[in-house]
Amino acid sequence: xxxxxxxxxxxxxxxxxxxxxxxxxxxxxxxxxxxxxxxxxxxxxxxxxxxxxxxxxxxxxxxxxxxxxxxxxxxxxxxxxxxxxxxxxxxxxxxxxxxxxxxxxxxxxxxxxxx
Length: 115
Ligand SMILES: [Zn+2]
What we know:
Helices cover 26% and strands 34% of the residues. It is an alpha+beta fold.
């Protein structure tokens, strides 16, 4: 269950944001989760509900957006999202994972009530 430290981190970040920007309350949080990150929406929601109590982001609505890992053809350089094929759809060449893609977990945007 590696979502726990991730959610703790998320709430810490939101608290900091709230303090810096003088938010009254955070209403909505849009998260981006890469398909290779191993982060599960339901676990994030569960921990968030548990841990956000008493914080400015308590009862905020969570929205999830998922990103694909990207593959790149070693032969022709074509880039395409993971999932469709393990060889290049353009030339049939060998493909490699583009480092860092699909493993992200980040806050894309938040909706907050200003003080
Ligand atoms: Zn190719």
